[in-house]
TrEMBL record:
Principal EC category: oxidoreductase
GO cellular component, one term: cytoplasm
Limits of the Catalase core domain: 8-402
Cofactor: heme
Residues the record lists as binding heme: Y343
Catalytic activity, EC: 1.11.1.6
Family: Belongs to the catalase family.
Native organism: Massilia litorea
SUPFAM superfamilies: Heme-dependent catalase-like
Protein name stated in the entry: Catalase
Length: 533
């Protein structure tokens, strides 16, 4: 063992596994007694006051969602009992907040960064928050690693500057991130604006029907305006004149009546483990290939009204991945389970324990809250608990609230396994999907990608350079070779490295399926760049 200090909890306990939530078996659900994770994530949620730790720079708009009532040509009720997805002719109010992730509140909107795409649907059965990004994958698959990931991507705590070596040092030790890096360092890392970008729930959820039957599901928003991205040079040109071009574009479009619209689509998979696939469908660093699991239209969303006050609505809007309606449920996706604790915990700290009393966050009147929760900072509404106002507990023979009736058939997941900390053993796709994505890019997208990564690696220590080229070469030989050439890295020296300790050898390179994703075939034109200024 080296003489490096041992990582501990804030209680001084040594940490033996900082990579994995405690779960029931490798693929089973996480458990509430994950003290190490809870301590880590709740401290992380409180690192900034009052600005969001992540997604600080954002803009928002109001609109509506309208369901088609079908999924893949069949009644939506075959898959889900959620009324918001079943009932046609109903316009459900929505509020959407778009954002960048890493930068602060005044950072430029031309940053190379994932874009947040958070939708609050105020349904007749209560709120449903679908909190995701513009890209369909993420950097990590276990929530316990999230604070470390953000720390590595944020500015250096000593220099207060974002350093490429910090980003790639983390990625070099986390091969699961290669797929997301391939997306972010391509033109897809800088959407032209918020109207012309996709949205995705990223995580795997479940749909539950009225028979208690579950299906795994991925949620996606496909823009009717098309998809458009920027090269690094185009983004720099815009940033020289305007650091708020995407906010301006969205606001002006809505003001002139050019309302942006997205089609809401799902990918459906039978509930289960799926050993026939070469990736884990619960792994949020992987896409479900659309030739196997097509995008099925479910409804449409239109944004038609700007906020009256940015602070009261956009900044105080609060989202949580645990805010689901009946008919939509959690999977055992470890990032989803960790986010479900972290997101709402962050809002209670950032906005206050009564953040759901604010009009922007409160459910619609037909689904107004009736809880037995009381008091707390900034209380100004008392939940209606029935005729007897004295009863703020349950159960009671004297009045107050009562539990809702149980569905005739509910979903019950059978869980069995040894409690412990597990890392997924299905890692072949860590390299395969990144390679597939590289090969599916248009020539100009590949050129932009390798120049961006190669330019970054020039600023990194040799140990990081060599490991990153080793990873990229195992994704695709051309990918690794071109990045090494641009960065001036000895390819043969990189290829001679052994696998990372504790990590399996990557699979053999091979061609894979491409995806149908509606991407722009060409970068934004000079006229389009000029119009964004």
């Amino acid at each position: 063992m080296s003489d490096r200090p041992i990582l501990t909890t804030r209680q001084g306990h040594p940490v033996r596994d900082n990579q994995s939530l405690r779960s029931v078996g490798e693929r089973g659900p996480a458990t509430l007694e994950n003290y190490q994770f809870i301590e880590k994530i709740t401290h992380f949620d409180r690192e900034r006051i009052p600005e969001r730790v992540v997604h600080a720079r954002g803009t928002g708009a109001h609109g509506f969602f309208e369901a088609y009532g079908t999924i893949g040509g069949e009644p939506a009720s075959k898959y889900t009992r959620a009324r918001v997805l079943n009932e046609t002719g109903v316009q459900t109010p929505v509020f959407v907040r778009f954002s960048t992730v890493i930068g602060g509140k005044d950072s430029p909107e031309t940053a190379r960064d994932p874009r947040g795409f958070a939708v609050k649907l105020k349904t007749v059965e209560g709120n449903w928050d679908l909190v995701g990004n513009n890209l369909k994958v993420f950097f990590i698959r276990d929530a316990i690693k999230f604070p470390d990931m953000i720390h590595a991507f944020k500015p250096d705590p000593v220099t207060n500057q974002q350093e490429p070596w910090r980003f790639y040092d983390f990625v070099a030790n986390s091969p699961e991130a290669l797929h997301m890096v391939t997306w972010v360092k391509s033109p897809w890392g800088i959407p032209a604006n918020y109207r012309e970008m996709e949205g995705s729930g990223v995580n795997t959820y479940k749909l539950i029907n009225d028979q208690g039957v579950a299906h795994l599901v991925k949620f996606h928003w496909q823009p009717r305006q098309g998809v458009r991205n920027l090269t690094a040079a185009q983004a720099a040109e815009i940033q020289a004149h305007d650091t708020s071009h995407a906010t301006r574009d969205l606001y002006n479009a809505i003001e002139r009546g050019d309302y942006p619209e997205w089609e809401f689509c799902v990918q459906i998979m039978a509930d289960g483990e799926h050993p026939e696939l070469d990736f884990d469908p619960l792994d949020d660093t992987k896409r479900w290939p659309e030739d196997q699991f097509p995008l099925l239209p479910v409804g449409r969303m239109v944004l038609d009204r700007n906020p009256d006050n940015v602070f009261a609505e956009t900044e105080q809007s609060a989202f949580g991945t645990g805010v689901l309606v009946d008919g939509v449920d959690f999977s055992d996706d470890k990032m989803l389970q960790g986010r479900t604790l972290s997101y709402s915990d962050t809002q209670r700290y950032r906005v206050g324990p009564n953040y759901l009393q604010l009009p922007i966050n409160a459910p619609q009147e037909r689904a107004r809250p009736r809880t037995n929760q009381r008091d707390g900072q900034m209380t100004y509404v008392v939940d209606d608990s029935g005729e007897n106002k004295h009863i703020n507990y349950e159960p009671s023979l004297l009045g107050g609230t009562q539990e809702a009736p149980q569905p005739q058939r509910d979903y019950h997941q059978y869980v069995e396994g040894h409690l412990g900390r597990y890392q997924t053993t299905n890692t072949r796709s860590d390299y395969k999907q990144a390679g597939d994505r590289y090969r599916s890019f248009a020539d100009w997208e590949r050129e932009e990608l390798v120049n961006n990564v190669g330019g970054d690696l020039k600023q990194c220590p040799e140990v990081v350079q060599l490991r990153m080229v080793w990873h990229l070469w195992h994704c695709d030989e051309d990918y690794g070779r071109r990045v090494a050439q641009i960065a001036g890295i000895d390819l043969e020296k990189a290829k001679a490295l052994p696998p990372l300790p504790g990590k399996p050898m990557p699979h053999e390179n091979r061609q894979g399926a491409t995806y149908t994703d509606g991407r722009s075939e060409e970068p934004a034109t000079s006229e389009e760049v000029a119009s964004a200024k």
